[in-house]
Amino acid sequence: MDVEDLLQKHALLESDINIIADQIQTVNKQAEKFTTEEGPDGSGYNPVEPQLVRERMNILNERYNELLELATERKSRLGDNKRLCQFWWDLADLENNLKEQEQVLVLTDTGRDIFSVNHLLAKHKNAENNLDSVRRALDTLEKQGNDLVGEQIPGSETIPDSLDSINHYYAKLRQLADSRRKTLEGGVEYYQFFSEADDVEAYLLDTLR
């Protein structure tokens, strides 16, 4: 059973606890008349010791408060577990995103003309923009992860190592991105030079005719 199912089940339990609270309130209201020395009808006759009734009422209230405290603690634990599961899910999703960008960044194709290299450069810039988005998402995840670790949520012990690993992976991809962008920009300049040289040569030939 996943944490969402457990939270839904807990919500049903809380509804039952609220019903119990109403029942206890009704019972206590009925029992109040047996806690006075005058008795339930004011005649002074009491079929039961008032002190005994008060003790039973106190026990009932204590048991309910214990139940309420247990429910609150369980809800808190389930909430923490949900946060932890969401963190790991988001971290895995972010890592998959990085792997997708890596496929673009490790390309060795540098184009064969000005048009193809510009196409590759545009594709590369899109990957770099995606890396920027990943960085922002990673910063958010780091804060969430550090909060989980700081709160000593069970299961958060491996978060620092996982964050270090994905930060290292990100830094490696950023280096790849910088290197490939320089290569592609150099290719643009290279093909641009020959394109302009061809234009000048064509102009000169046309002028000399």
TrEMBL record:
Q: Which Gene3D superfamilies match?
A: 1.20.58.60
Coiled coil ranges: 54-81, 117-144
Supply the SUPFAM superfamilies for this chain. Spectrin repeat (SSF46966)
On whether Iron is a keyword of this UniProt record, the answer is no
| Keywords associated with the record | Coiled coil, Repeat
Q: Which InterPro entries match?
A: Spectrin/alpha-actinin (IPR018159), Spectrin_repeat (IPR002017)
Pfam families recorded:
Spectrin (PF00435)
Q: PANTHER family recorded for this chain?
A: SPECTRIN/FILAMIN RELATED CYTOSKELETAL PROTEIN
Q: Which protein is depicted?
A: Uncharacterized protein
Organism, as annotated:
Ditylenchus dipsaci
